[in-house]
Every structure is written in C-alpha cells, then in structure tokens.
Amino acid sequence: MAKKSVASLQTGSKRLTKAIKMVKSDKTGAYIFTEAIMAPDQVNAWLSKK
Q: What is the pTM assigned to this prediction?
C-alpha cells in the first residue's frame, strides 16, 4: 500500500467517510484502487488490514 486518501461525507444525521486504498496486485504487479464508505472510527482498521 503506497497511498491513502480519506474524505468525509455527511448525509443527513449520519457521518460517513470514504476511504481509498492503493493495493499492489501479487499476480500482475499493477496497482489497483479499492474504495469503501464507512463510519470514521472504522477507517484505520480498514486501511491497516491487507
């Protein structure tokens, strides 16, 4: 993982965060981006897992 980007989103009464993780593929060696929208307290756990 080489880069992380976090943007906060607010919809109604819920506060959400969109996290983007760049992951290197073992098969091809190319980088792919994975995105997820979650609660702000779950972002660090999601970014740290492989």
A: 0.62
